[in-house]
């Protein structure tokens, strides 16, 4: 529970309600950079599948500043996320405000972002073991999306989804214990590899993207292309051989068929460096079938960050807090 016994679900619902009191919302844009940008995937995926009245899209912060979409106006809700106030994300918030959009900041530390935005919601960092899963940025964004659709159009599974957020942290803790020995073995095998491909689709693609660009490339300085399981068969499968390291996320939901197709090919033409992390094994099946598809990112991402990335850091003797350029040079 949050301040004065208010749950994060209730806090989010109330803030969305305040936005809708003053704005007729027809569009929502999710704006951030890096892992925060990838963290919006679950919310945008939900909006695109469940909303018939609200257009939803994601933007990396600097693109939004340089080339904002023409539709952004007083009928737009801009949800903007930055842990500590990344410069270009703060500038994106200003751009959204100047165009007339209602703005909600998701943040860990107060910054120009929270000063600019109309509303603000504090979140807990996914990287901290004590953080609760329902209170990390991707979970709060998904709650915003669900509350928005529910309040404007009605979402039949809203209460089911909110109840799932009450138990998802416990599901995650159980998954961590399950995955640790598996991650250790995988990391030992990957320790000498120079490239690790990460694959996913649909509701898990955002987790695959973050695992590649943030966990493997940024934190460990190992090349890591992200491949959509559907797009795999339209080019990338040509690089597959028996030695290629591939990490496949098997989602729960309608897109699982795409992941299964990719897995069948990987099993036929790949080798011992193909690794599969199945959403069914990390607890997504413990959530109601009517909403579990939308929780793929919510469970995959903290497990990848806090279990698999840390295991690879240990196996490679690379401190995952070390950077080559970030925070050190002008960029």
Question: Can you describe what's shown?
Answer:
The protein has 331 residues and is α/β, with parallel strands linked by helices. It has 2 domains: 3-155, Rossmann fold (3-Layer(aba) Sandwich); 169-316, Rossmann fold (3-Layer(aba) Sandwich). It has helices at 8-22, 35-38, 41-50, 61-66, 87-98, 112-116, 137-152, 158-190, 205-218, 256-269, 296-316, and strands at 27-32, 55-60, 76-81, 102-107, 119-122, 197-200, 226-228, 246-250, 274-278. It has a 5-stranded parallel beta sheet, sandwiched between helices. A 4-stranded parallel beta sheet has the order 7-6-8-9, with helices on both faces. Strand 8 (246-250), helix 10 (256-269) and strand 9 form a beta-alpha-beta unit. Helix 3 packs parallel to helix 7 and helix 7 packs antiparallel against helix 8. The relative contact order is 0.13. The model has no long low-confidence stretch (mean pLDDT 97). Keywords: Isomerase. InterPro entries: SIS_dom (IPR001347), SIS_dom_sf (IPR046348).
Order of helices and strands, N to C?
A: HEHHEHEHEHEHHEHEEHEH
Radius of gyration: 19 Å
Contiguous helical run count: 11
**Envelope shape:** globular
Strand percentage lies at: 5-15%
Query: Runs with pLDDT <50, length 5+?
Result: none
Average pLDDT value? Answer: 97
Query: Which architecture of the largest domain per CATH?
Result: 3-Layer(aba) Sandwich
Biggest β-sheet description: 5 strands, parallel
CATH homologous superfamily heading of the largest domain:
Glucose-6-phosphate isomerase like protein, domain 1
What is the β-strand count?
A: 9
- Structural class by secondary-structure content: alpha/beta
Give the fraction of residues assigned to helices: 40-55%
CATH fold group of the largest domain? Rossmann fold
User: Kindly, what is the distance between the CA atoms of the first and last residues, rounded to a whole number of angstroms?
Assistant: 40 Å
> How many structural domains are formed by the residues?
2
Strand order of the largest sheet: 2-1-3-4-5
CATH top-level class of the largest domain: Alpha Beta
């Amino acid at each position: 529970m949050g301040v004065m016994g208010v749950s994060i679900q209730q806090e989010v619902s109330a803030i969305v309600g305040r936005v809708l009191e003053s704005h007729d919302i027809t569009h929502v844009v999710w704006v951030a950079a890096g892992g925060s940008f990838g963290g919006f995937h679950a919310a945008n995926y939900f909006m695109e599948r469940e909303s018939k009245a609200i257009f939803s899209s994601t933007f990396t912060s600097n693109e939004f500043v340089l080339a904002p979409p023409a539709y952004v106006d007083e009928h737009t809700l801009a949800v903007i996320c930055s842990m500590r106030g990344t410069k270009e994300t703060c500038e994106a918030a200003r751009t959204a405000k100047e165009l007339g959009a209602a703005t909600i900041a998701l943040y860990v530390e107060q910054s120009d972002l929270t000063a600019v935005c109309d509303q603000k919601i504090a979140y807990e960092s996914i990287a901290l073991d004590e953080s609760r899963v329902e209170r990390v940025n991707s979970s709060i964004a998904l709650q915003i999306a669900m509350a928005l659709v529910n309040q404007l159009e009605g979402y039949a599974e809203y209460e089911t989804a909110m109840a799932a957020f009450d138990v998802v942290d416990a599901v995650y803790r159980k998954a961590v214990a399950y995955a640790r020995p598996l991650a250790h073995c995988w990391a030992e095998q990957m320790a000498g590899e120079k490239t690790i491909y990460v694959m996913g689709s649909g509701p898990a693609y955002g987790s695959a993207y973050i695992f590649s660009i943030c966990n493997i490339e940024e934190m460990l300085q190992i090349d890591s292309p992200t491949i959509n399981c559907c797009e795999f068969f339209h080019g990338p499968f040509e690089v597959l051989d028996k030695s290629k390291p591939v990490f496949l996320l098997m989602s729960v939901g309608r897109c699982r068929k795409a992941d299964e197709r990719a897995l069948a090919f990987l099993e036929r033409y790949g080798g011992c460096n193909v690794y599969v992390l199945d959403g069914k094994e990390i607890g997504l099946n413990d959530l109601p079938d009517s909403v579990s598809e939308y929780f793929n990112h919510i469970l995959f991402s903290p497990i990848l960050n806090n279990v698999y990335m840390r295991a690879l850091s240990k196996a490679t003797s690379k401190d995952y807090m070390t950077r080559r350029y970030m925070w050190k040079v002008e960029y």
